[in-house]
Amino acid sequence: MQLKREESRRPCDDGRKAYLDGVRAHLEKARSAADEEFGWRRPWSGSIAREGVWSNLRGADVLLLRLVPDEDAVGRASEVMALVKRHLDRDDPRRVRLTQRIRHIVSGGLTPDDRELLARALDSAYSSLDAELARVRSLRNMLWTATILVFIGVAGLALYGALAPRALSLCFAPKASAGDPNQMHVVCPSAEYHDRTANTVPSDLARSQDILTVEIAGLLGAALTVIASLRRIRGTSAPYMLPLASAALKIPTGALSAFLGVLLIRGAFVPGLSDLDSRAQVLAWAAVFGAAQHLVTRLVDDRAQMTLSEVGGPTGTAVRQENGAVIDDGPGHDLTTGPAAAVEQAGDGTPAAPDEKPGRVPAEETTVT
Question: What is the Cα–Cα distance from 279 to 291, expressed in whole angstroms?
Answer without folding.
Answer: 19
